């Protein structure tokens, strides 16, 4: 008994009917999404608070507004993005029409994670809808309260012949992945990313995988420790560290570490007070399982700041670890919690080697007053994205693609990159049924003279070879 | 004494003259504003800093194109030079190291690629490996940073599954049955020339060749003599002796194609010669959808014609099947061409000709659905083999401004931040 067959059939039929193609339909869907956010703000904030103890500030900034901005951008640019993109022609091809047509793939599957359960469901959804696809959304079952809102409230704002939400855990998702989709967009861990891609391979389904890793944060000796501490702490402990692009660990000299520690303590106290557990601005760990995992990491190295935990609250204090070995668990897995280990290096070269010995991360951070140092780290490493002298601000720039490389993922989205991700770029050439005498130059029997003429025509830059 | 009177008078007179009405005038004004901003950036920043201590240092935001690292290119046998070199050009231009696995089936070209090509490249950054399916399977167990594969959908799945184990991104240039719809409203000889040229080129062994024709019975009756005429003009009375007609790559493929000759009814050609791996330029009619010639990519000099009663029926026929790599429509009516384009999907599309779209360097070349994923040629090759890294370089100063975003959060801080975020292409100096 396949629980998904009917839903998939319905969505495919709707797509075949051509329903999602007109700009008006797509715009109506995007406006529906917009109304969903506006009319259910409180409901969403409550759900996010229940799932992750998100403050109103975090919900607004990192979930609701960011999604709304993406919707607004898509609405503003929809028609421009949808237009056939004419491509350069030369003199020989003036009579031909050459362009790239953006077409929806068809049925898109979006699998969303629990850490930014609204944003990471809606942002890809905006792209998929703007591109004219029918969409099946599988929100995370771990962020239960948000899952409920997405399953029960969101569909009312969209055309339900072209959009559906399915629920389930790993087993149901595995079953779902046996079906053929025309595109799969997955946000989650590298381990599950491999499973998704392997399932996609069976149907030759293209994928975008937004994965993760350990995002290094190199702190140069030449910097202001308090500024660095403020910025690193803000981005590390945001959402209680449960952010795929959060700085995962610091790399710095022992001297820098000595200056950073009091600065980090100062930042943490200023941000969350003397008793961070009672701060409304600090999130909680999503689940018992993750809490236990993180509590285990607290025994790596030595606790320099924080280290407290409270199981009844799934609370982990903003923590900094020092004297950590590369072989310890805290340096072997993506932390995804409010724990910041500091690793010591003797030089910039050593830091770069350390980074390059490991999997390519989703984000890489470098703090230095020296532009040279920042540019050198940029030039000698690779990562999904990079930010000099700040945390994950690069992902709020709509004109920058957001995605990973290597183990941190493949493909990208945000803004126009979302529209392009969910579109097939079809090469189109419309030629003339006449001029056969000219076209005849290319037919056999071939002579050396014909060949010379043809080769000359082909050498023309951006050649569209009318003679061929 | 009114200090403004003259100025106001001047402006009113200009407006009455109609000067500001044309779009060109307005655009010129807007462009002037734009140049003002561009040419006076520093001046403005200084002025704003003096007045309001505004966040004057704009961030540097850019996309950096980086090579992936070690790229594997697996090339096929039908255009063994082109389909090895074209991806290689992209991979090298993008700064990668490359391992090339040419096809073992096109043995002579494989030899040249293996023995001669490396001498022309830096061999610390480029290597050729040889082998058949088994060796390729072994090769695929290794981790690559990108895999570019040209070949059949069946093997494409194997390559993607192997890539999944290492989270390696892939471009798969596959194949399918490329439909060729021929409208009643066309000149049969022109269509026959073009279809025949592209079908029999390389003895049909082309991933973007028109695979089968869809047309009305009436059109078929007009096409057949025109196709015969084209074939005779191109290859002579005895095509087997024409220097312009290719041969089938292997015994195995020859046997497969010879088997297809018994589908439907041979209307033109149908001869074959095993000793020469020669198959005559052939047209089949009265073909059933269930016969082998309509169930697999032909990849040979055999062109079946399927009859349809209408354009709608042709479009339905096409949409019932896997998305092809290429789709062709011949019609004197632009409407018809555009309708087929709008109601189908395919890697690429050409109206009123064969696979010319792949010679346009500014068009991406690639498939969709079962015909593939990703694309290349020209800049698309460079971009395919590059990681597009989002980079933002911010300032270590201005901490007082940045501090607005830190906890403890207040409703006022939130409003300011949201306002900053709403700025189009927001680079949120405040965040």
Automatic annotation (TrEMBL), chain A:
Gene Ontology BP terms: aldehyde catabolic process; cellular response to oxidative stress
Single GO MF annotation: aldehyde dehydrogenase (NAD+) activity
InterPro entries referenced in this protein's UniProt entry, alphabetically: Ald_DH/histidinol_DH, Ald_DH_C, Ald_DH_CS_CYS, Ald_DH_CS_GLU, Ald_DH_N, Aldehyde_DH_dom, Aldehyde_DH_NAD(P)
Pfam hit, one: Aldedh
Gene3D superfamilies recorded: Aldehyde Dehydrogenase, Chain A, domain 1, Aldehyde Dehydrogenase, Chain A, domain 2
Segments forming domain Aldehyde dehydrogenase: 11-424
Keywords linked to the UniProt accession: NAD, Oxidoreductase
Keyword Cell membrane listed: no
GO CC terms, sorted: cytosol; plasma membrane
Catalytic residues in the record: 210, 244
Entry similarity comment: Belongs to the aldehyde dehydrogenase family.
Protein name (Swiss-Prot/TrEMBL): Aldehyde dehydrogenase
Organism of derivation: Balaenoptera musculus
From TrEMBL, chain B:
GO molecular function: 3-chloroallyl aldehyde dehydrogenase activity; aldehyde dehydrogenase (NAD+) activity
CDD domains with a match to the protein in the record: ALDH_F3AB
Record domain Aldehyde dehydrogenase: where: 29-387
Keyword Oxidoreductase recorded: yes
Assigned keywords, A-Z: NAD, Oxidoreductase
PROSITE patterns: ALDEHYDE_DEHYDR_CYS, ALDEHYDE_DEHYDR_GLU
Entry's Gene Ontology BP terms: aldehyde metabolic process
Protein family (similarity comment): Belongs to the aldehyde dehydrogenase family.
Protein name: Aldehyde dehydrogenase
Source species: Balaenoptera musculus (Blue whale)
